[in-house]
Write a structure and sequence with these properties.
single chain; mainly alpha; 4 helices; 84% helix
């Protein structure tokens, strides 16, 4: 019963983060799948045993831990890729901003000084 309540609370938390727009839709789908999977395994606890036997794993919790570790490694890899992409984008934007500031400064100097270059 505690696991069922916990699973429902996780799903409600995901929906609340989505409602407040604090969680991007592309990540929400991933976490909703995790939450629903957790809910299904909580409602049907024998399902994990069936899956572990089908996979050739003797202890069902070992399969659960293995899947969780693989999932978390995948999430970490994806987030590392996102951070790298955003760092490149931020660097490019900073370079573009520096060029624009230089252009604006030169334009201001030209317009504030007279035709002979004197103020």
């Amino acid at each position: 019963m505690v696991a069922l309540i916990g699973s429902v609370l996780i799903l409600l938390g995901i929906f609340e983060l989505l409602r407040r727009r604090q969680l991007s839709e592309k990540y929400a789908v991933l976490w909703l799948v995790v939450g629903l999977t957790l809910l299904v395994v909580t409602i049907f606890p024998g399902l994990l045993g069936v899956l572990s036997r089908a996979a050739g794993v003797e202890i069902a919790s070992n399969l659960l831990f293995f899947v969780a570790i693989v999932f978390l490694v995948g999430v970490a890899l994806h987030l590392s890729w996102e951070v790298s992409r955003l760092e490149d984008e931020t660097r490019k934007l900073a370079e573009d901003l520096a060029i624009l500031r230089l252009d604006v400064d030169e334009h201001v100097k030209r317009t504030t000084s007279g035709p002979d270059g004197k103020s």
